[in-house]
Design goal:
17 strands, four-stranded antiparallel beta sheet, about 15% strand, seven-stranded mixed beta sheet, alpha/beta, Aspartate Aminotransferase, domain 1, about 40% helix, 14 helices, Aspartate Aminotransferase, domain 2, 2 domains, binds 4'-deoxy-4'-aminopyridoxal-5'-phosphate
């Protein structure tokens, strides 16, 4: 059944050759987009063309090829800036991914601006990437971590958040969208409330940027992070947006080439923004691929993508809800393209292994969010997550495969 009339799925899918294959004799239904997305031909072509015709190291060469590579790399930075509506390119730092971006903030801003007894607020919805760096810093510096609870449907509890905020709160680090439940957090309000008590805020946008337009000025956050590979771009590239005045104050993260203004054995001095945070040869081809991914997404339009994915999510939710023994996790409203579930009497790993025999790729496990699993009293869940190229037929394939799983394990 067609999902929407105006959304040209056939045309879109033709851009993802990897999707046109069979797995165990069935058409591949790739439903693990929250872990990583497939890459459109535009992205693979952009990196291939760069390697074949424009490759050189950046910022260093006086020769034409290096200058061209630098123009492309810095063009990618401008592309990212416009994508999230940052004020200046100086506020866009390329990293290896969201994990590195968060570690960078913890190790620089956190290391220099936080003191023993200061409080850092997280939520139960965080990925380990937005928990462990703060735990490491907390144990090194004697910080206190406070965690905003969620209700039985995985909803962010606003009153509980407000009650955790005080003049001792120095930092709030929250996900924009939960990778396990798809819950969308009210980040703009979260930021405003944190700012009111003088705290800075980092928003983990990994699961938001592929599904909705993000405007860091409107959210007014101090830091915003995401990974390229979840945004139809290459692996090995991520983004840290930081408010310029904060990035200026922060010490460098790593030392090496490209991040210095000058070096003597007595004293190095740092390069300007954003290079102070980009030690060593950067991931040039990956940045160019990320820019191509952003161009691609915007050529379809984030609104159109959101409408398509909402239709898919509703459809898949209905199909799964009809299956006896399926428990859907997380709220039915205000969420993006993630569907986490359990099936009575069947371990999620068995679910994922069996549906794979029907060509359906889903995730099973704790999704790097063990505290949230503990909150729901389960060790793991199965998770289907949708991307711009998924179809209702793929949601049907998942539901049919789950019926088969139920058949194997009994009524
Ligand atoms: N935060 C969230 C919400 C995520 O979903 C992920 C990836 N699953 C990460 C952070 C970490 O991203 P990466 O592994 O690309 O650094």
């Amino acid at each position: 059944m067609a999902a929407t009339t105006f959304y040209d799925l056939d045309h879109i899918r033709a851009n993802f050759p990897i999707l046109c294959q069979t797995v165990h004799g069935h058409p591949l239904a790739f439903l693990d987009n929250a872990a990583s997305t497939q890459k459109p031909a535009d992205v693979t072509m952009a990196t291939k063309t760069f390697y074949e015709t424009g490759y050189a190291n950046v910022h260093r060469g006086a020769y034409w090829l290096s200058e061209q590579a630098t123009i492309q790399y810095e063009g990618a930075r401008e592309r990212v800036r416009a994508f999230i509506n940052a004020r200046r390119v100086q506020e866009i730092v390329f990293t290896r991914g969201a994990t590195e971006s968060i570690n960078l903030v913890a190790a620089t801003w956190g290391q220099t601006c936080l003191e023993a007894g200061d409080e850092v607020v997280l939520t139960w919805l965080e990925h380990h990437s937005n928990i462990v760096p703060w735990q490491m810093l907390a144990s090194a510096k004697g910080l206190i971590l406070k965690v905003v609870p969620v209700d039985d449907d995985g909803r962010f509890l606003w009153e509980a958040y407000q009650s955790l905020l005080s003049s001792r709160t120095r930092f709030v680090s929250v996900t924009h969208v939960s990778n396990v439940l798809g819950t969308l957090l009210p980040v703009k309000d979260i930021v405003a409330a944190a700012h009111a008590v003088g705290a800075k805020v980092l928003v983990d946008g990994c699961q938001a940027v592929p599904h909705m337009a993000v405007d860091v000025c409107d959210i007014d956050c101090d830091f915003y992070v995401f990974s390229g590979h979840k945004l139809y771009g290459p692996t090995g590239i991520g983004v840290l947006y930081g408010r310029e005045v904060l990035l200026q104050e922060m010490p460098p993260y790593q030392g090496g080439g490209d991040m210095i203004a000058s070096v003597t054995f007595e004293k190095p001095s740092w390069a300007g923004l954003p290079y102070k945070f980009e030690a060593g040869t950067p991931a040039v081809a990956q940045a160019i691929g990320l820019a191509a991914a952003i161009n691609y997404i915007e050529s379809i339009g984030l609104r159109a993508i959101a409408v398509h994915e909402a239709d898919l999510l509703n459809y898949a939710t209905q199909r799964l809800a009809e299956i006896r023994g399926v428990r859907l996790l997380g709220p039915a409203q205000i969420k993006t393209s993630v569907l986490s579930f359990t099936l009575n009497g069947v371990h999620p790993h068995d679910i994922a292994t069996i549906v794979d025999r029907y060509g359906v790729a889903i995730r099973a496990g704790h999704h790097c969010a063990q505290p949230l699993m503990q909150r729901f009293g389960i060790p793991a869940s199965a998770r289907a997550s949708f991307g711009l190229y998924n179809t209702r037929a793929e949601a049907d394939a998942l539901a049919d495969a789950l019926e088969s799983v139920r058949g194997i394990f009994g009524p």
